[in-house]
Amino acid sequence: MSNIVSQIGNTPLIYLEEVSKLTSCKIYGKAEFLNPGLSVKDRAALSIIENAEKRGDLRSGGTIVEGTAGNTGIGIALVANAKGYNVKIIIPETQSQEKFDTLNALGVELIKVPAVPFADPNNYQHIAKRIAKEEMRTNPNGAIFADQWNNLDNMSAHYSTTGPEIYNQTNGEVDAFICSVGTGGTLSGVSKYLREKNSSVKTGIADPKGAAMYNFFKNDQVKATQGNSISEGIGLGRVTPIIEEIEKVDYAYSIDDRDALPYIYNLVKNEGIILGGSSAINIAGAVNLAQDIGPGKTIVTILCDHGSRYQSKIYNTKFLKDKSLPIPDWLRS
Ligand code: PMP
């Protein structure tokens, strides 16, 4: 295979110098922002599409429908374009302009809807399901609902690729893995694989404020923490089939944007890596985990997507000022 699809995955594992020094651990970031769609979700998109093809659910000219915070939609669109499918994306209108622009550039049918809680029948995920059902009923070329929160093909992408890559890139010497949860595909798939290889590998969740996974894994209660986060693509409020696949999480952290964002600003300035907000939560989580299990341990986290996707938010002085968030020196005007 020589098209763009073959370039998904096999991302480098990058040594994060400053946080490693800070904690006396070796903290590595899996560079998912180097996937063709600039995010970790390319893997899930490819797995969902290829498994649907194998089952015979998708045929040439068919349509893929998905509700997404953006990155899954971008992953789906680039795989679909390369393979000859159409794409309909339902997205909350609060997501970054850069994601809308990328989805438009990819030529998807983009349906922006008001951001309302999951409990509301007009939440984007429910609208996507209804549109998918209608498309399946009426589209002569067939359609599928990608359904990333419930579709275990999302998780299996990480079980069969991200997990093994991390294990091999650390020569099997990974002591702990931590990341945040959007659908939980990454956390469940990677931790399942690593634990099967070595049952003493520790796992952790870095949860943004306002999400429920911290309390779920720490206190067995599906209850959102106080506050909110500007991070996109993470922050789950309910237990899904993918979350149910996670046997246990050893360490849970609830992380404030104010504590997390400086890590990615330092990475820009001192290590030349430009990341999005969920990576900030992940790195803050890795630092907490290192402080709990270190020193001398090898810890891996995920660098989920590229910062160019948030130029108008995380790297924009006015946005940061309005949200009373830390502003890096070089962005002050
Ligand atoms: N970070 C970003 C920027 C994302 O878009 C997503 C996926 N929505 C995640 C992290 C979380 O990945 P997962 O769905 O595998 O939990």
TrEMBL record:
This is Cysteine synthase A. Keywords: Amino-acid biosynthesis, Pyridoxal phosphate, Transferase, Transit peptide. GO terms for molecular function: transferase activity, transferring alkyl or aryl (other than methyl) groups. GO terms for biological process: cysteine biosynthetic process from serine. InterPro entries: Cys_Synth/Cystath_Beta-Synth, P-phosphate_BS, TrpB-like_PALP, TrpB-like_PALP_sf. Pathway: Amino-acid biosynthesis. Pfam families: PALP. Gene3D superfamilies: 3.40.50.1100.
